[in-house]
Protein backbone atom coordinates (compact mmCIF):
# COMPACT_ATOMS: atom_id res chain seq x y z
CA UNK A 1 0.00 0.00 0.00
CA UNK A 2 1.55 3.29 -1.08
CA UNK A 3 -0.10 6.29 0.49
CA UNK A 4 2.76 8.71 0.03
CA UNK A 5 4.13 8.13 3.53
CA UNK A 6 7.68 7.11 4.39
CA UNK A 7 7.97 3.44 5.29
CA UNK A 8 9.09 4.31 8.82
CA UNK A 9 5.71 5.92 9.44
CA UNK A 10 3.63 3.13 7.94
CA UNK A 11 4.06 1.00 11.07
CA UNK A 12 2.41 3.79 13.10
CA UNK A 13 -0.48 3.84 10.68
CA UNK A 14 -0.89 0.08 10.54
CA UNK A 15 -1.13 -0.04 14.34
CA UNK A 16 -4.23 2.19 14.01
CA UNK A 17 -2.56 4.92 16.00
CA UNK A 18 -1.11 7.98 14.42
CA UNK A 19 2.03 9.65 15.64
CA UNK A 20 2.66 13.35 15.31
CA UNK A 21 5.33 12.60 12.71
CA UNK A 22 2.99 10.39 10.66
CA UNK A 23 0.22 12.98 10.83
CA UNK A 24 2.64 15.71 9.74
CA UNK A 25 3.62 13.66 6.71
CA UNK A 26 -0.02 12.98 5.82
CA UNK A 27 -0.96 16.63 6.31
CA UNK A 28 1.92 17.93 4.20
CA UNK A 29 1.28 15.34 1.49
CA UNK A 30 -2.46 15.84 1.14
CA UNK A 31 -3.46 19.26 2.49
CA UNK A 32 -3.21 21.15 -0.81
CA UNK A 33 -5.17 18.54 -2.77
CA UNK A 34 -7.89 18.24 -0.13
CA UNK A 35 -8.13 22.03 0.16
CA UNK A 36 -8.35 22.47 -3.63
CA UNK A 37 -11.08 19.83 -3.83
CA UNK A 38 -13.11 21.47 -1.05
CA UNK A 39 -12.60 24.99 -2.43
CA UNK A 40 -13.64 23.78 -5.89
CA UNK A 41 -16.81 22.31 -4.45
CA UNK A 42 -17.92 25.19 -2.20
CA UNK A 43 -16.42 28.31 -3.83
CA UNK A 44 -15.60 29.88 -0.48
CA UNK A 45 -11.92 30.11 0.47
CA UNK A 46 -12.44 30.77 4.18
CA UNK A 47 -15.04 28.05 4.66
CA UNK A 48 -12.80 25.67 2.69
CA UNK A 49 -9.98 26.30 5.18
CA UNK A 50 -12.29 25.46 8.08
CA UNK A 51 -13.66 22.35 6.39
CA UNK A 52 -10.16 21.19 5.45
CA UNK A 53 -9.06 21.56 9.08
CA UNK A 54 -12.10 19.54 10.13
CA UNK A 55 -11.19 16.80 7.61
CA UNK A 56 -7.75 16.40 9.17
CA UNK A 57 -9.26 16.42 12.68
CA UNK A 58 -11.46 13.53 11.56
CA UNK A 59 -8.39 11.74 10.16
CA UNK A 60 -6.81 11.88 13.63
CA UNK A 61 -9.94 10.99 15.58
CA UNK A 62 -11.18 8.24 13.25
CA UNK A 63 -7.87 6.79 12.18
CA UNK A 64 -8.59 3.58 14.06
CA UNK A 65 -11.48 2.97 11.65
CA UNK A 66 -9.19 3.07 8.58
CA UNK A 67 -8.74 -0.36 7.05
CA UNK A 68 -6.15 -0.79 4.28
CA UNK A 69 -7.96 -3.96 3.20
CA UNK A 70 -11.13 -1.99 2.33
CA UNK A 71 -9.54 0.89 0.41
CA UNK A 72 -6.35 2.82 0.06
CA UNK A 73 -5.65 5.78 2.32
CA UNK A 74 -6.30 8.43 -0.32
CA UNK A 75 -9.78 7.07 -1.09
CA UNK A 76 -10.58 7.05 2.64
CA UNK A 77 -9.29 10.62 3.05
CA UNK A 78 -11.32 11.96 0.13
CA UNK A 79 -14.41 10.15 1.38
CA UNK A 80 -14.01 12.14 4.60
CA UNK A 81 -13.59 15.34 2.56
CA UNK A 82 -16.65 14.53 0.43
CA UNK A 83 -18.73 13.91 3.56
CA UNK A 84 -17.51 17.17 5.10
CA UNK A 85 -18.57 19.09 1.98
CA UNK A 86 -21.96 17.36 2.04
CA UNK A 87 -22.37 18.34 5.70
CA UNK A 88 -21.42 21.93 4.85
CA UNK A 89 -24.12 22.13 2.18
CA UNK A 90 -26.63 20.50 4.47
CA UNK A 91 -25.98 23.24 7.01
CA UNK A 92 -25.87 26.03 4.42
CA UNK A 93 -28.91 24.70 2.53
CA UNK A 94 -27.74 26.10 -0.78
CA UNK A 95 -26.73 24.83 -4.21
CA UNK A 96 -23.22 23.90 -5.20
CA UNK A 97 -21.14 26.51 -6.98
CA UNK A 98 -17.71 26.13 -8.49
CA UNK A 99 -14.68 28.30 -8.99
CA UNK A 100 -11.86 27.81 -11.41
CA UNK A 101 -9.73 29.96 -9.12
CA UNK A 102 -9.65 27.08 -6.66
CA UNK A 103 -8.32 24.72 -9.33
CA UNK A 104 -5.73 26.83 -11.07
CA UNK A 105 -4.16 30.07 -9.99
CA UNK A 106 -4.64 31.79 -13.33
CA UNK A 107 -3.58 35.24 -12.21
CA UNK A 108 0.21 35.35 -12.12
CA UNK A 109 0.41 39.10 -12.70
CA UNK A 110 -1.90 41.97 -11.99
CA UNK A 111 -4.45 41.78 -14.83
CA UNK A 112 -5.71 44.77 -16.75
CA UNK A 113 -9.30 45.89 -16.09
CA UNK A 114 -10.27 44.49 -19.50
CA UNK A 115 -8.74 41.11 -18.62
CA UNK A 116 -10.63 41.10 -15.31
CA UNK A 117 -13.95 41.69 -17.11
CA UNK A 118 -13.20 39.00 -19.70
CA UNK A 119 -12.12 36.56 -17.01
CA UNK A 120 -15.26 37.29 -14.98
CA UNK A 121 -17.42 36.72 -18.06
CA UNK A 122 -15.67 33.40 -18.68
CA UNK A 123 -16.12 32.36 -15.06
CA UNK A 124 -19.80 33.26 -15.13
CA UNK A 125 -20.25 31.25 -18.33
CA UNK A 126 -18.42 28.31 -16.76
CA UNK A 127 -20.52 28.50 -13.58
CA UNK A 128 -23.70 28.56 -15.66
CA UNK A 129 -22.44 25.61 -17.71
CA UNK A 130 -21.51 23.62 -14.61
CA UNK A 131 -24.95 24.30 -13.15
CA UNK A 132 -26.44 22.47 -16.15
CA UNK A 133 -24.64 19.28 -15.16
CA UNK A 134 -26.04 16.80 -12.67
CA UNK A 135 -24.72 16.69 -9.11
CA UNK A 136 -22.93 13.43 -9.94
CA UNK A 137 -21.22 14.98 -12.97
CA UNK A 138 -20.14 18.07 -11.01
CA UNK A 139 -18.88 15.89 -8.16
CA UNK A 140 -16.80 13.70 -10.51
CA UNK A 141 -15.34 16.77 -12.23
CA UNK A 142 -14.44 18.22 -8.82
CA UNK A 143 -12.68 15.03 -7.76
CA UNK A 144 -10.83 14.73 -11.08
CA UNK A 145 -9.74 18.33 -11.62
CA UNK A 146 -10.12 19.86 -8.17
CA UNK A 147 -8.55 17.09 -6.13
CA UNK A 148 -6.46 15.54 -8.89
CA UNK A 149 -7.73 12.01 -8.25
CA UNK A 150 -7.28 9.29 -10.86
CA UNK A 151 -10.34 7.72 -12.48
CA UNK A 152 -9.73 4.48 -10.57
CA UNK A 153 -9.62 6.35 -7.25
CA UNK A 154 -12.86 8.17 -8.06
CA UNK A 155 -14.43 4.85 -9.06
CA UNK A 156 -13.39 3.28 -5.74
CA UNK A 157 -14.75 6.25 -3.84
CA UNK A 158 -18.12 6.18 -5.61
CA UNK A 159 -18.41 2.40 -5.94
CA UNK A 160 -18.61 2.35 -9.75
CA UNK A 161 -16.34 1.07 -12.52
CA UNK A 162 -13.34 2.96 -13.88
CA UNK A 163 -14.91 2.96 -17.33
CA UNK A 164 -18.09 4.53 -15.93
CA UNK A 165 -16.04 7.41 -14.52
CA UNK A 166 -14.29 7.84 -17.87
CA UNK A 167 -17.60 7.93 -19.73
CA UNK A 168 -19.17 10.40 -17.28
CA UNK A 169 -16.12 12.68 -17.52
CA UNK A 170 -16.05 12.51 -21.31
CA UNK A 171 -19.75 13.27 -21.66
CA UNK A 172 -19.67 16.01 -19.01
CA UNK A 173 -16.72 17.77 -20.61
CA UNK A 174 -18.35 17.44 -24.01
CA UNK A 175 -21.51 19.10 -22.61
CA UNK A 176 -19.43 21.90 -21.07
CA UNK A 177 -17.52 22.39 -24.32
CA UNK A 178 -20.73 22.62 -26.33
CA UNK A 179 -22.35 25.15 -23.97
CA UNK A 180 -19.21 27.28 -23.75
CA UNK A 181 -18.79 27.19 -27.52
CA UNK A 182 -22.43 28.28 -27.97
CA UNK A 183 -21.82 31.15 -25.53
CA UNK A 184 -18.77 32.23 -27.56
CA UNK A 185 -16.43 31.60 -24.63
CA UNK A 186 -14.61 28.67 -26.18
CA UNK A 187 -13.52 28.52 -29.80
CA UNK A 188 -11.90 25.44 -31.21
From TrEMBL:
<dbReference type="GO" id="GO:0016987">
    <property type="term" value="F:sigma factor activity"/>
</dbReference>
<dbReference type="InterPro" id="IPR039425">
    <property type="entry name" value="RNA_pol_sigma-70-like"/>
</dbReference>
<dbReference type="GO" id="GO:0006352">
    <property type="term" value="P:DNA-templated transcription initiation"/>
</dbReference>
<dbReference type="GO" id="GO:0003677">
    <property type="term" value="F:DNA binding"/>
</dbReference>
<dbReference type="InterPro" id="IPR013325">
    <property type="entry name" value="RNA_pol_sigma_r2"/>
</dbReference>
<feature type="domain" description="RNA polymerase sigma factor 70 region 4 type 2">
    <location>
        <begin position="124"/>
        <end position="176"/>
    </location>
</feature>
<dbReference type="Pfam" id="PF04542">
    <property type="entry name" value="Sigma70_r2"/>
</dbReference>
<keyword id="KW-0804">Transcription</keyword>
<keyword id="KW-0731">Sigma factor</keyword>
<dbReference type="InterPro" id="IPR013249">
    <property type="entry name" value="RNA_pol_sigma70_r4_t2"/>
</dbReference>
<feature type="domain" description="RNA polymerase sigma-70 region 2">
    <location>
        <begin position="26"/>
        <end position="95"/>
    </location>
</feature>
<keyword id="KW-0238">DNA-binding</keyword>
<dbReference type="InterPro" id="IPR014284">
    <property type="entry name" value="RNA_pol_sigma-70_dom"/>
</dbReference>
<dbReference type="Pfam" id="PF08281">
    <property type="entry name" value="Sigma70_r4_2"/>
</dbReference>
<protein>
    <submittedName>
        <fullName>Sigma-70 family RNA polymerase sigma factor</fullName>
    </submittedName>
</protein>
<comment type="similarity">
    <text>Belongs to the sigma-70 factor family. ECF subfamily.</text>
</comment>
<dbReference type="InterPro" id="IPR013324">
    <property type="entry name" value="RNA_pol_sigma_r3/r4-like"/>
</dbReference>
<dbReference type="InterPro" id="IPR007627">
    <property type="entry name" value="RNA_pol_sigma70_r2"/>
</dbReference>
<dbReference type="InterPro" id="IPR036388">
    <property type="entry name" value="WH-like_DNA-bd_sf"/>
</dbReference>
<keyword id="KW-0805">Transcription regulation</keyword>
Amino acid sequence: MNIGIKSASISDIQDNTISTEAFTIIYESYYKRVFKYICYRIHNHHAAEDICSHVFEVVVSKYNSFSPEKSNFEVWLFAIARNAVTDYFRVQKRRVSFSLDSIVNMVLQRPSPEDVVIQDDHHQALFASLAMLSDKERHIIAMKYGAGLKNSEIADLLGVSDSNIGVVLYRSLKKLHKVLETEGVYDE
